[in-house]
Amino acid sequence: MFNKFNYKTESSYAFTHGWFIQNLNNIASYGFNGGGLANYRTFPSKGLSILWLTNGYTIHMI
Q1: N or C: which end of the chain has fewer CB within 10 A?
Q2: Residue 19 carries which DSSP code?
């Protein structure tokens, strides 16, 4: 599940089968977000997962 997706063309985009790969402070993490309304990130080496949920947002036009 955390193996990097093999694109048909060369890509530096770090994405696995459903998860983004990202290093935060040199710590490997995997996660996904839903348009800024929900976010999940896991840090396997630290045994830590973070889930962030919101009720949405309102855009105020100026």
Answers
A1: C
A2: -
Locate all alpha helices (DSSP H) within 1-62, ordered by sequence. none
State how far the Cα of 50 lies from the Cα of 32, in Å rounded to an integer.
11
Distance of alpha carbon 26 from alpha carbon 18, whole angstroms: 22
According to DSSP, the residues that pair with 50 across neighbouring strands are 41
Q: What is the pTM (predicted TM-score) of this model?
A: 0.61
Cα dihedral 48, 54, 13, 6 sign: positive
* Structure confidence at residue 5 (pLDDT): 56
Domain-wise residue ranges, the chain = 1-54
Contacts of 7 (CB under 8 A, 6+ apart): 13
CA distance 5 to 17: 6
Pairwise CA distance, residues 21 & 14, whole Å: 5
